[in-house]
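Per reviewer request, we include the raw input and output of the structure prediction for the construct analysed in the revised manuscript.
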Amino acid sequence: MNDKGVPTDSEAATLRDRLEKDAKQSGYNLNPDKEFTVELARGLLVNESRYGYWACPCRLADGTAEKDNDIICPCDYRDKDLDEFGACYCALYVDDDIRDGKRQPMPIPERRPLEAERKKGGRSNEPGPISNALFGLSGPKYPVWRCNVCGYLCARDEPPLVCPICKAKKDRFERFI
């Protein structure tokens, strides 16, 4: 970081390279526009310096990890945005068609609930869906998906595009709860 708290070009480029490596290892694609992704990496580093975590640079962070948990990169909305629009909200992650230049990223609507809605029943204040199911509470808020290859469990509207453990594709998941 320079004396104004801004990450250097080298720091941002290093993080961008690390993000690309991690994305490839997890079955995702980083946006091929290096200048663009270096600036997003710079934003992640700035937010890490401010808050202690990688709050998505394209959204306003509260500054409390508990309240921002859904927008810590990679955010909770990434897979759904990739599946529906071919890119995440900030376009850091893209699908194969956008990566290969077959189509351009398009605007993506904000999926994150408004602050007032999060205060009414934000996820951070509720028991997790697996806990609800195990303890006989009202039932899971989201369906629980199980990877048929490695057994990984996740609670979300749809299974992930790629299993973060074994890299199996979305079609290898089944509804668990």
